[in-house]
């Protein structure tokens, strides 16, 4: 993907650096508070709900309805004390996720990505991190999952501008995890059968700390 030209660089919701990646670490507290202050928290859909197990629709309308959805997603993420939330996690079949996530250096990243696509990394850049992973849609369950410790995602912001986002460590895991959601994958789908069963057992044995949508 070619670097954005000068006009594009200054038309987006967030500024970009010299390589065309969004700068999502400036004033994250104020931006997150503004989003959720306008939004309404919604309950979280959990594993087994059909909306979580299929690819979502592309975002094509970047108007007021999307803006309200994004606000509600930030409010819902805050209520659930999450660091990332995909639209299908509140029952909406659209390719958009929000994030408010630290990286391993303690920098807080806050933003919105519509129609995300993970960039395929060359083998020499795939250093795996086997940290524990959890999911708001599999409440109270955790399992180690190997993922690259660096990620790049292309997509659009909530106004439809093309963007690129990159992250390392925990934030890289967040970018991969949330993109997975929008293509119908939960992190437990990447576990062995035994590990998946253990994660579902953890979920069954504990109560979520936030409102969820019960599956019929």
UniProtKB/TrEMBL annotation:
GO MF, one example: peptide deformylase activity
Cofactor binding description: Binds 1 Fe(2+) ion.
Ligand binding (Fe cation): 135, 177, 181
Swiss-Prot/TrEMBL catalytic activity: N-terminal N-formyl-L-methionyl-[peptide] + H2O = N-terminal L-methionyl-[peptide] + formate
Uppermost EC category: hydrolase
Cofactor(s) named in the record: Fe(2+)
Name of the molecule in the record: Peptide deformylase
Source organism per UniProt: Streptomyces tauricus
